[in-house]
């Protein structure tokens, strides 16, 4: 049982990791803009602010990206739900406790909730008076309500977590090399929560004093020879270790997919090397390969302790990238030693990542299993041409129209349609009528599909009539009440109910249901019944059955009763 749970957990983490690729793709350019615009480089305020705009809203970006990535069909409704959920969650937390800061974790959590709720409720049907809010429109609503509940929960459990981090930060400064090791490990582990900034704020800006300057960062630039220990260890990891990890992931990808991931991994590596912005590359394998991320966290802690043992003191104003290394080198102590340590880290990261990816078949970028194709993937082109082809081609369509949920078509040869293709394109049922009439039950998208079909026909030079569409529900029911199935459809219905001898009586109930009295109910083929447009079957104790058909129930009953 535990093994099964572990497999399911790993599969979930891997799917989450893949969904993070969407927001990660925008981070490298944001990191470069943010760093290049700083006063010690180009000193262009709007460039820095352009990059900062992304990082300031990182949690919201992850909420959108994760929600869309987890949604079965990458639908934008999931992204909207992610936005709604995140805004609601932040508002609740701000009201309960303004000091709560969950960082990127809030976006990842609410994005996951939105994506999972989308998959669960995207086709939900509500009562008629609430039908407008059904389907995909329901997702932002239920996500917002879920965010209220999550906000109440985190409002209770998160303050103690933040307080514990605060207390830990005060211990680290006095714990020597052990404290540096623990600090380095926690700094990486806490990135997903955003709480690493809490640790950083203490050690970089609060603890220690030198000529009025406080904190490791400020004391380093004030000339304190003892400062820099809480920054030096990041340089080998950010400038050498993580770029080596990116190279290993590139080489581990199948040759046919290296071109697909090469550009992404190169940009992630350059961003880490030049600017010290590592979140893009870390999120690329944090969930896909958590064991490698644990190795990365331990190596960061080891680098912090090792650089201190070697007497290396380095600092940065922004992060531990090449830009800051060059700018702070003149104030460093034994700063040159970072290069050989960094090269050793490059080799170690590359070898470990390359070995572990191959040994444990880790789904790092380029090695993820291909996502299963959804129904729409069966169509080689746009929706309109695909429907035209499934309906037997241009010459087979005499007129095209639609009502609320069905295509209303007149065909030259109703037998020429490809039912399998239509169902792959989303058809829930097909109703054949006499005189070449055909209705394809699609749901609320029927009118849009009819427009697409007419557009495709015009593009192919065909002139097609618009099928008359009843103006009211009453007119629609009246039209269907006198309609009849064609011979083939009637035979298909008789086969589903077990033949003419098995059908004792058929009638219409409440205008939308067939009432069937069968000699042997076991002969009813429910699977095929749904393919003919039935939405459901209800069994009664007296042996009768009600088949939910919608307005076309009268046409079916009339044809079966003949």
Automatic annotation (TrEMBL):
SUPFAM superfamilies: Glucose permease domain IIB. Keywords: Cell membrane, Kinase, Membrane, Phosphotransferase system, Sugar transport, Transferase, Transmembrane, Transmembrane helix, Transport. InterPro entries: Glu_permease_IIB (IPR036878), PTrfase_EIIB_Cys (IPR018113), PTS_EIIC (IPR003352), PTS_EIIC_1 (IPR013013), PTS_Glucose_EIICBA (IPR050429), PTS_IIB_1 (IPR001996), PTS_IIBC_nag (IPR010974). The chain crosses the membrane at residues 20-37, 44-70, 76-93, 100-118, 138-159, 180-207, 227-249, 261-277, 283-302, 314-331, 337-357. Pfam families: PTS_EIIB, PTS_EIIC. It is a multi-pass membrane protein. Residues 7-369 form the PTS EIIC type-1 domain. Residues 381-463, 487-562 form the PTS EIIB type-1 domain. The keyword Oxidoreductase does not apply. It is found in: Cell membrane. The keyword Cell membrane applies. The active site is at 403 (phosphocysteine intermediate). Its main location: membrane. This is PTS N-acetyl-D-glucosamine transporter.
